[in-house]
Design a protein that fits this description.
Helix content is 44%, strand content 22%. It is built from twelve helices and 23 strands.
């Protein structure tokens, strides 16, 4: 935790301690500045909590979906339920208030009926001068009052009282009658006053029903405890320990009257919650003194339960009332079951989504650890399952590509080794022979080459020259090239080692090529062959004896003449018994021999035209005064420039030999 975190936490703790101390000692003054700091600290911790929840709890897709589902489905449902509960509470509150109001209205009407009946009876008696019994009137005052007291406990009938109430009611003809709640001499009572004319004037009959616990007990038996509170606006002379605040004005209780022995009704089901409400009743304040700003108010508080109010609400339906209430509960239960089912379905679907995503995440962790064999389990057939299948297919492809890359790397390593081995087969240094300047270049199209060239020193004045082009490319051609090199060298070296019966003067190039043909025919497949140019140059006689076995004819350029060395036969390795011939060339001073493979003259330009032998001769002619190295490089450069492509289609090999009188040592 940072310093700011600790500071915010300490402020909240101090404010909590201050609130606790003020609970025990109300004289401890509050601190507005500390309250402001506590608000700031609370906001700070709310922001910190949200950031932490977003970075930790909401990092997981499952938690995010759950949170989204809560905000989309659960929160609105809870808000609707809360609104429904609040509406039901207000409805039952209003219903309880209506019950009390109608019950009091009935009591007022009953008191008014009593006062009216007695006033009429007294008016008739006064007009006739006879009693009600003698007149056989339907209302006997004594009996009528006795019967009315069963409904109106504490009923008192007075005559000649209530003149001050007439004309203060809201009813029609209020000048002759009045009924309502009256607060007089510190007592709350129901009063009904009726005036009737008589010959002697008029008679006043007043029915007074004090608001007592006995009267309140007769009100709405289905309600719980009921309490009448008489409140008067607080003035400077009256102070209350617990004042009541109504419409920004403080009132103090003047009189409180409640039921006795009426307990809070018990709940019949878990949803049968206690309803506590209040209702205001109109009252006439006769005790209001001059200077008092407002009369007293009567507030009736009650406690009940929805089941009792439902019983009264559905009572007009008789036996059908219980069925209606039951049907309402059943419908509510069905809705609740549907909501629970929807919630469970949403949770299951959410888990399906999050499980699939979690499996994919775990799969990526396995891949990150190098386990490419891990596959996602697919329990369902949906779009997420298709995503899992795509991941599995991708990983299979990646595994295949990696395996192919591994095999390719292995092959490249093997080719690299083969290239190193093949380089050992080429001459490490160019021979030093009097009167000859030699240059040889071989550029493979791939890592290894199917072209072959070699120089074999037979004697101090004799040099064997070999150029071959193996059919095919790559490793197979390189292996056959090694075979050709071994066979040719072993046959030629017989002359240098002086084997019995062999003389240098008897070297026959046609015989050596014939031996090579027989060797390849017996040790290679039917489709494998090679073109070979083999010659032996004698520096003393300045003669070149050669045999061309299907190879591109080397060019002997002397002065302005170009001679193609074509004498020989067909390629070696295809047929068993093939005749080969030996040719000879007299080498003049300043002459130049160019031997090459087909890769040097077959490159094509963008129009499909080959470089060709003619252009090769032109390059050699233009560079006739240059060194062998410069001529060879010029030929290579001209062929590559002609094709205009950095990639070679075939192996390119060239040997350039310039014949003069100055020997020169060259390195390959």
């Amino acid at each position: 935790m940072s310093l700011i975190d600790w500071a915010a936490l300490v402020i909240l703790v101090l404010y909590g301690v201050l609130l606790g101390l003020r609970e025990y000692n109300a004289q401890i003054p509050p601190s507005g500045f500390l309250f402001f700091l506590a608000i700031c600290a609370a906001i700070y911790w709310l922001v910190r909590g949200w950031i932490w929840a977003r970075d930790h709890l909401l990092w997981s897709l499952r938690n995010r979906l759950v949170a989204a589902y809560v905000f989309i489905a659960v929160v609105p449902v809870l808000l609707l339920l809360a609104m429904a509960g609040l509406a039901a509470y207000l409805l039952y509150w209003q219903l309880g208030s209506y019950v009390i109001y109608t019950e009091m209205e009935e009591r007022e009407q009953r008191a008014g009926v009593v006062a009216t009946a007695l006033a009429n009876s007294y008016a008739v008696e006064a007009a006739s001068g006879r009693s009600a019994a003698a007149l056989a009137l339907p209302v006997d005052p004594a009996t009528y009052i006795k019967n009315a007291m069963t409904e109106l406990p504490g009923l008192k009938v007075e005559t000649g009282q209530g003149e001050e109430l007439l004309g203060r009611g809201d009813e029609p003809f209020s000048g002759n009658r009045f009924r309502g709640l009256v607060f007089s001499d510190g007592q709350l009572a129901l009063r009904a006053v009726v005036a009737r004319p008589t010959p002697a004037g008029r008679i006043l009959v007043s029915a007074v029903v004090p608001i007592t616990p006995e009267l309140i007990d007769t009100l709405a038996p289905e309600l719980g405890p009921i309490q009448f509170n008489v409140l008067r606006a607080e003035t400077g002379n009256i102070k209350s320990v617990v004042p009541n605040v109504i419409a920004t004005q403080q009132f103090v209780p003047v009189q409180q009257i409640g039921t006795t022995g009426r307990p809070v009704p018990k709940a019949v089901n878990p949803f049968d919650k206690l309803i506590t409400g209040i209702v205001g009743l109109d009252v006439l304040d006769l005790d209001q003194k001059q200077g008092q700003t407002s009369p007293v108010r009567v507030v009736v508080a009650f406690s009940t339960r929805p089941s009792l109010l439902n019983r009264r609400l559905f009572s007009p339906l008789g036996d059908l009332g219980g069925a209606a209430a039951t049907a309402l509960l059943v419908v509510g239960a069905i809705f609740l079951v549907i909501e629970i089912g929807s919630l469970v379905t949403g949770i299951i679907m959410t888990r399906t989504i999050t499980t699939a995503v979690d499996n994919l995440y775990n799969a990526t962790q396995h891949v990150q650890d190098g386990d490419l064999s891990y596959r996602v389990r697919i329990p369902h057939r949906d779009q997420l399952a298709a995503l899992g299948e795509s991941f599995n297919s991708m990983m299979q492809s990646v595994s295949t590509l990696i395996e192919e890359q591994r095999q390719r790397q292995k092959l490249e390593n093997e080719l690299s080794i083969a290239h190193e081995v093949q380089q050992q087969l080429f001459p490490r240094s160019l021979p030093n022979l009097q009167g000859i300047e030699i240059e040889a270049i071989c550029r493979p199209a791939r890592v290894v080459s199917g072209d072959y060239y070699d120089f074999i020193r037979i004697s101090p004045t004799r040099l064997a020259i070999a150029v071959a082009d193996i059919s095919g490319k790559g490793i197979s051609a390189a292996l056959l090239m090694a075979n050709v090199q071994a066979a040719l060298r072993s046959d030629v070296l017989r002359y240098r080692n002086g084997q019995p019966g062999i003389h240098l003067e008897q070297i026959d190039t046609a015989e050596i090529v014939s031996h090579l043909n027989l060797h390849l025919f017996r040790n290679t497949s039917d489709e494998r062959y090679a073109t070979v140019f083999f010659g032996v140059y004698d520096a003393e006689t300045r003669q070149l004896h050669y045999t061309n076995a299907g190879h591109l004819p080397p060019l002997y350029i002397s002065g302005g003449n170009v001679r193609r060395l074509e004498t020989g036969g067909m390629v070696v390795g295809l047929f068993n018994d093939v005749p080969f011939q030996q040719g000879a060339v007299e080498i003049e001073h300043g002459g130049m021999l160019v031997a090459y493979s087909d890769g040097l003259i077959e490159p094509e330009n963008v129009y499909g035209e080959e470089f060709g032998t003619t252009r090769l001769v032109d390059v050699a002619t233009r560079n006739k005064d240059a060194s062998s190295h410069e001529v060879a490089e010029a030929m290579m450069h001209a062929a590559e420039e002609w094709s205009g492509s950095p990639e070679q289609a075939d192996d390119m090999t060239v040997i350039v030999m310039r014949f003069s009188g100055h020997p020169q040592e060259k390195r390959a």
